[in-house]
Write a structure and sequence with these properties.
76% helix, 7 helices
Length: 158
């Protein structure tokens, strides 16, 4: 495909980037919705969401790279929209952790903001080091991430 062909459909690189990020956001929003309505504990929802999110990004490495590394290149208006999307995602994880705390599933002294930021950072880095030709599959890595997220949230030393 030639550059001119792409610009027939898109006004600018910003529009292309925004559409890629919109696609990724919709996919991740769908994952959040799926986990929200499962009949499992909020602690298990954290683990399942992290696991499904990591699996999705490991299966879509180019989109993950754009979503985590290129999004700051958006124009002002598009950047504001993307920041709001990222906040919504961060709030989902943090709210689940806070609900676990309110239910007594995790220590009262735990810091949900730090925990959710730590988990989000780990998810963002997974596609950087993951080797699709390595010994562990995307699903195996994703499952381990989910277990680690639960372990972080439910730690006993808070």
């Amino acid at each position: 495909m030639h550059k001119a062909s792409v610009y027939h459909y898109y006004r600018s690189k910003d529009a292309i980037l925004f559409d890629i990020l919109t696609f990724a956001d919709q996919e991740i929003s769908d994952l959040m919705d799926k986990e929200e309505f499962k009949d499992i504990s909020d602690l298990e929802k954290v683990g399942r969401f992290v696991s499904t999110h990591v699996a999705w990004y490991l299966r879509h490495p180019a989109i993950a790279r754009v979503a985590f590394q290129e999004w700051m290149g958006l124009s002002r208006e598009a950047l504001d929209i993307q920041r709001e999307r990222r906040r919504r995602y961060g709030h989902f994880v943090r709210n689940k952790i806070e609900q676990c705390q309110a239910q007594g599933l995790i220590p009262a002294a735990a810091n949900p903001v730090v925990m959710s930021n730590f988990i989000n950072g780990a998810v963002a880095a997974a596609n950087i080091w993951f080797n699709p030709d390595g010994p562990a599959t995307a699903d195996a890595i994703a499952e381990e991430f989910g277990k680690i997220a639960i372990s972080i949230v439910s730690r006993k030393d808070s």
